Amino acid sequence: xxxxxxxxxxxxxxxxxxxxxxxxxxxxxxxxxxxxxxxxxxxxxxxxxxxxxxxxxxxxxxxxxxxxxxxxxxxxxxxxxxxxxxxxxxxxxxxxxxxxxxxxxxxxxxxxxxxxxxxxxxxxxxxxxxxxx
Length: 133
Known about the structure:
Elements: E1 2-6, E2 9-12, E3 17-24, E4 33-35, E5 45-48, E6 63-69, E7 73-80, H1 85-97, E8 103-117, E9 120-130
Parallel strand pairs: 4-9
Antiparallel strand pairs: 1-8, 2-3, 3-7, 5-6, 6-7, 8-9
């Protein structure tokens, strides 16, 4: 499993709805990767994990969403499980930390290749899937 960082925007605090632009296509990221258009399946389900990617090692997820391809990148639109203690507590923490908090997403690389991009050696991410899906 690999991970990358992202920031989350609260869309509706009463419903626990969030949105995160988590990947911009055709840009070298801080890990030296270039995610290509089509790397994510549009409409694919995604889990919102407990802190520290704990849901990928057995802790219950705190929300769910979908991955949406917006042409220039990928957005996760999701909702926390506010009817669970873990979901409500995690959402409250995310909301209160605002711009101070940072998330990351986990993914498995299905297809990639190394090459040159803008004069730098990079890994092109061609096909990815959310961990656990």
